[in-house]
């Protein structure tokens, strides 16, 4: 009776979550939402949710790309400031003079 043991369907939960996110945040082409991102990423096959084929993989990849873009956009000023600070403290002529000790 081992086959009757309850095993939770994690893949089905992930697929349901991806479909739920697709429905909640689809939006419009001109406005904000996943539809606009799908158009920009040339992923027009994601306009309608499907249960067959690579839809789950493609929608998860597209949502991850959109999330990464939003995170990087929000962090861009901070990353730019950190890069400038690294150049000043580690890669500038003045920083090199501080590290070089001439006899």
Which helices and strands occur, and which strands form pairs?
Blueprint: H1 10-24, H2 34-40, H3 55-91, H4 93-99
Helix pairs in contact: 3-4
Domain DUF6589: 1-77
Protein name: DUF6589 domain-containing protein
Organism: Coprinellus micaceus (Glistening ink-cap mushroom)
Summarize the structure.
This is DUF6589 domain-containing protein. The protein has 103 residues and is an all-alpha fold.
**Sequence of secondary-structure elements:** HHHH
- Give the integer mean of the pLDDT values: 82
Share of helix, binned: 55-70%
Q: How much strand?
A: under 5%
How many DSSP helices?
4
Query: How many structural domains in the coordinates?
Result: 1
- Tell me the major beta sheet: none
Number of strands: 0
| Alpha-beta content class | mainly alpha
Q: Distance between the terminal alpha carbons, to the nearest Å?
A: 82 Å
Low-confidence stretches: none
The dominant shape is elongated
